[in-house]
Each structure stands twice: as C-alpha cells, then as structure tokens.
Amino acid sequence: MNLTVDQLSESELLARIFPRLHTGTTTLLGPGDDSAIIAAPDGRTVISIDTQVQNKDFRLLWPNGSISSGYDVGWKAAAQNLSDINAMGAVATAMVVSLTLPRTTPVTWVEDFADGLSAAIVALGAPQCSVAGGDLSGGSELVVTVAVTGSLEGLEPVLRSGAQVGDQLAVCGNMGVSAAGWALHESSVVASDFTPAMAHAAGLFARPVPPLAAGPAAARAGATSMMDISDGLLRDATRIAAASKVCVDLDSAMLAAMAAELEETAVVLGKNALQWVLTGGEDHGLLSTFPAGRTLPEGFIGIGSIVSMEAAVAAVIIDGQNFEGVVSGALGWDHFAV
Amino acid sequence: MNLTVDQLSESELLARIFPRLHTGTTTLLGPGDDSAIIAAPDGRTVISIDTQVQNKDFRLLWPNGSISSGYDVGWKAAAQNLSDINAMGAVATAMVVSLTLPRTTPVTWVEDFADGLSAAIVALGAPQCSVAGGDLSGGSELVVTVAVTGSLEGLEPVLRSGAQVGDQLAVCGNMGVSAAGWALHESSVVASDFTPAMAHAAGLFARPVPPLAAGPAAARAGATSMMDISDGLLRDATRIAAASKVCVDLDSAMLAAMAAELEETAVVLGKNALQWVLTGGEDHGLLSTFPAGRTLPEGFIGIGSIVSMEAAVAAVIIDGQNFEGVVSGALGWDHFAV
What we know:
The structure is a homodimer.
Chain A: H1 10-17, E1 27-29, E2 36-39, E3 44-53, H2 70-86, E4 91-101, H3 107-123, E5 130-138, E6 143-151, E7 168-172, H4 177-185, H5 196-206, H6 214-220, E8 225-229, H7 233-244, E9 247-250, H8 252-260, H9 263-269, H10 273-279, E10 285-290, E11 300-307, E12 316-318, E13 321-322
Parallel strand pairs in A: 4-5, 9-12
Antiparallel strand pairs in A: 1-2, 3-6, 4-6, 7-10, 7-11, 8-10, 9-11, 12-13
Helix pairs in contact in A: 2-3, 4-5, 4-10, 8-10
C-alpha cells in the first residue's frame, strides 16, 4: 500500500509502466533501446512537444475538492499533443514521454498516468499512435513532457500562414468549455453540486476531447490555414492574422451562441461566458480558414471571415470593430506574465 | 540588467530565442507553427527524449564554486540527446525543446541555453540537425527536456539485443572522465587549483563530447549491438547482456589502463578511479560488439568479449569472474534510489 517511486529502482518502475503503454501500428521499434523507430511513410515526420507542470497546468487537489488523477494528466498530455499534429492536418504516429517525479509520487499515480495516456490515444481516435519511449527523472514537482510525431500521409501541411482575404473563418470542437471547467475547479462549488452543464465542462477540462478526425478532413477540404486553439480564440486568431498578414473578423452572433451554452455556469460563478469563449484555452478545437463558398467539412462552423489588414483597425476584430469595445481583458494565457 | 523571464511575454522571450537556434538541412518547417516538419528520407524516423532537472542533473552553483551556465546545460542537453541517436547508428535530424523556467530565471540564462544547444550541435558534428521547435512553461525549478530525431540513412539500426557469443566488446569515447569531473564539482577543490587533468575532466562533465561519427561508422562496420554509456559501463553492459541473452566479460587490464588516466584526480579526492570507469555515467561513449576478428572502426578499443550465459557466474564479469570481487559499490545511477 502507498508504494512510492523512490521505493522502486528505475527498471522496476519501467517494468510497471511498459505493459500499460499503447502500441499502435506505426512503431518499428518500441521502448527499451537507446531510441525508438517510427515509420515515416511519405518521407516526412511532423513533430511537436508540450509540457504540463504541477501547480501551473494542473493541481493534484483543486480548491473545489476535485483531484487531477494520473489518468487525467495522462489523458490531457495525449490530447494536447495529438491536437498539435491534428492542427497540421496530420495523423499522429508516436509519442515519447518524459516524467519528472517527486520521490513521494505514488507508483499508482504513474501507472494511472500511463493508463490515461494510452486510453486517450485510442478514445480520441488515434489508435495507430504508439507510446514509443520515454525518460524518468526525479524532481521536486511533477513535470510531464510529451513529444509527438505525425504523418501527413502525402498531403501538404496546413500552416498558420495561408489565410487569404475573403476566406471563411471556421472552428471545430469546443470553445470556452474547458475554461468554464477550469473556473469550476478553482471555485468553491463542489462536484456533487454540479448541474449537468457544469459536470460536462469540468469533465472536458480534466479530459479534453480535441476533434482529431477534423484536422486531416480540413486539409483534404482545402483549408488555407489552421491551428489548434490552445491559448484562447482571440490570441490564437491573432497568430493566424500575423502569420498570414491578414485581419480576422469574428461574427458576434456566433460568439454569443457559443457563450449561451456556458451562461448557466458563468452566472453561478459570477463570470463572463463570452470571455471564456474568447480567451479560454485548452479545449484544443481547431481554428481554420477555407476559401469563400467552400462547403465546410463536418463539425466546422463558420464564425467570421478574413479581411484585409489595411481596412482593419486591429489584427482581430469583431463585427468589423476593435474587439476591445466588445470584451475587455486578457488575450488568453501567458506562461510567465500574471 | 538582470531581466528575468517573468518580465517578458512568452512571445517576447521566443523572439529572443528563435534567432539563436541552429538551423540544419533536414527541417522542412521550423519553429512557429503548431508542429515542425522534418525530412525522413528513408521512410523511418529514430526518436528519443531526455530530461535534465535542476539540483538532480545539474546545479546552478556547485560546492566547489563552479557554475553550470545556460550554455553548459544547453550543450549537455544536445550532447546526451545526440548520443541516443548515435547509439542506434543513426544521424540526428532535429530537436524539439521544452524548458520549464522559474519566474526569476535570467533571460540571459535562456539565451545562453539556446547558444550552448546550438553550438554543441555544430561542434559535436551534427550540423545537419535543426532545433525545430519547442515549448516554454513556468515552474519552481529548471527542467530541460529535449526530444531528438534521427535518420538511419538506409542502414539497419544497431540494437542492444544483437550481441553474439564470441563477439569482441569495444568502447569508443571517454570512460569515467565525466564522473571524475562530477566529483570535482562536488568537492572543495576550486577550479583555480585544478591540474590539467582535472580541468579536462571538469570540462567534459560540463560539456560532454559524445563520439558522434562513431555510431554510424560502427553500423557500417557490422556492429552486432550498441548502446551509449549514460549510466555507467557495468550497468549498461548488463543491459546489453540482458537484451542479447549473453554474458559480457570485461578485460581488467583495459579497465585499469582507462582508470590510470584518472588516478591523479582520484588520489586528490580520495576516490577510486576504477569505480569511475566502471560506474561513471554521462560521458556518452559507445559500448558495442563486433564479430570476432573484425577490424574495429576508428576510435573503438577492445575491452573484452561476449561469452555464453550458461558458462558465466553473472551477466557481467571481469576476467571471467564475478565483478563484485574486483570492485564493489553501486552499478551506476538510479534516478530514485539513493
């Protein structure tokens, strides 16, 4: 009972982790050697890396009494990394994982992490993706880093820089739901008092569900630009605008419709649902542009258009106006500024 | 003066890092989008991940007054990751980097890190390798994680599992030198009192020099097994033995010759030079096996042979005997056990 990682050797701990790691179809050599080997059938490998830090990106115990289990942290690690591959229009092929663990970390937490990581890979729709290797370190706080690889399967990548004036702007996936869930975790509202909408938001904060089929579908449908919304719609739209040298014009009616679904939770917490939609991160939906008139792929909804920089008052506007007049506040997350 | 990372936005900090990152020839899309894209010319990508944690793997200030600069930590991150690719017989193609930074980290430390990482890539002989992307997080201690990719360039990987009874055992690179350098850092001997041998050891601990050309050369020369020595010769030889289901027999005369070069430092510190050779990690030399009679590639020296498990008293022996009789003590590093 209560076995902690400092009571096992590294090889004993690895022996408990390895059998729990999902094995897909694209790994030519899995864990146990100096490196893993992954198939790259079209001669290119897409790669990204993402980190979660204890008490920054997650808490083991939240103010409202919720717990981020190892399973939750593993699920989120998989989700946010798979999303970065999805946002290129690619399909994930493998993950390598680095865990920095305090000595008192329960071995069951690490096992749950491996289970959550593997479960998310399958449940989110990337069963071909293997957990191909990793690294264990000791440290004073939990740090989880995953690097993920993907295959473009012969398609061209969809970059942030391809948006054209006149394009439709569209999103796929949840918008602001994870932010509402985060606010619930940070509140005094215990889970047993949640309404169904609150439980839904809290659940998606703990275990995000990026729309993995949608990235490659958008690429095939001719998306001109794409990224995943990890730092909030306004902030990430600014990145599309900057990379493409265009202005993003958001439709307030669509934003209001998305906010309406969060209104009940916002009222209970005394928060602004529209601000969650505009600045909430970690839903890992997709923000994409498509040529005017093009039928949007399944799951995408239009939320605005791309206009010329010259005609606009800012890189991101709402109904043709500077969004500062519509909603004030932070543009999303910044890891150092508070 | 003394600008710290919490005084910059993430994008401002990235703007200072990006221009310092080495760009090689194998990156099809570099930093700035959701993912990077790397060439995988033979349809396979080798991948590994490695982490350094402050006060575990490095100290900003050591007992003897030495400092691990950002440049040193960046160099070591590159070296240990490049070594994992080298140990497969592959050539590095790209790195993605995750930095977890305390708010008070000087911006110059991060800039120095990027410089050291990039300088090592070029100086160690991997100029084709790009730093293709990364991630920044806040945390209470510095954690540096690098994932590295490589290309086998049409060759088969050299695994840990291929050693055959009768093979020659050979090493390439430094043995125990980094351990001597670590002991100096942990001692009361200040750098100004170092002999040339001590300065050499301390320098290689701070900035290891894995023999990067030797991995692909060994693969071409028909190496039957290979790994990089990151946790000590005895411990890593045990891994070759276990993976290949053989016994590794080390030649004590060769071990003694390697220890002799460290003897002066060992005497000053009251340590055992042979133990550094046998259990010292982080030199990132190569441990390889070659068929009997095969001329060893440049830089490799024979240090023993592969014998049958059935005939042996342990997985790793010295001159045919259990090594416990030759040197006692730990089998190398374990990240949690102390």
